[in-house]
Amino acid sequence: MKLARTKVVRFAKVMTCLNIGCPLGMGIWEGVPMRDIVWLTQPKENLRRVFYHGYHNHDEKQMFRSSLPIGRVLEDTNELPPVILCFKLNGEWLSPERGGPVRVVVPEAYGFKSVKWLTHLVLSNISHANDTYADQNNDVDSDLKTFCATLSLPEKMSQHQPIPITGWAQSGVSGLAKVQIWIQDKSSPWPSEDQYFRDAPWRDAEILKLPGDWNTEIRDAHQLRNSHSFSAQLEPRHWPLRLAKSHWACLHPGLPAGEYIVRCRTIDRNGAAQPMPRPFRKSGHAAIESRRLVVE
What we know:
Order of helices and strands: HEEHEEHEEEEEEEEEEEEE
Number of domains: 2
CATH architecture of the largest domain: Sandwich
Strand content: 25-35%
Largest sheet: 5 strands, antiparallel
Oligomer: single chain
Radius of gyration: 21 Å
CATH class of the largest domain: Mainly Beta
Helix content: under 10%
């Protein structure tokens, strides 16, 4: 907390599990850079990795542990915030439920890297990861992916009536440029060789703007000035925020009677359409969602 007087860092981040599709929540995380703790130890040149773990329960097999290359801890690249030892969320002291009194938060990573109830940091010359999820055959070095899903979609609609659809999108390390919708007539099968529906007639949805009163729910919101996510005027530096969650909406034109499949996808800032560029499940969820719609 002495370091926090001069070294405090704040940034917005969505918390997502590697093995769960829907984000668990988003907030403004606050803490001190892990590197400032590392430098206090006067590390030697043969340091390659930082291992860390915390309390989880009394079963040692479920003790969450993770690790990071020392390069990521010491240096922030690609406009990323630093890895932090976090003690506040949305201006409030971190509750036990959220990992208090102190947890790790890795901005670009899935939740398993942001170990709760932190007890130990271990500096090591070991070259490989020791993450809990490595034992479960997951990709422990995968960063947040960009993808989306629906929130509200009518199960039935009258024919030729506009169809309201809403959803959320996670903006991963590659950012978020577009959300798109496609409603497929179920009686017209799609070619199996186009498994990611690249040639489908996708329609752009609207990515909703940040609500005008967003900061009323964050205690001491003025502290966000000059953070990694917001300007001195409390305006987001980019929208949608990278590494965060946003919402979208679409009023799709009405359709004839029939059964349909509703799909949505994202386009990241590099032009890659979901589930690319990393479609493999071991590195986090990015599959294109399918929802049923009946028009009568």
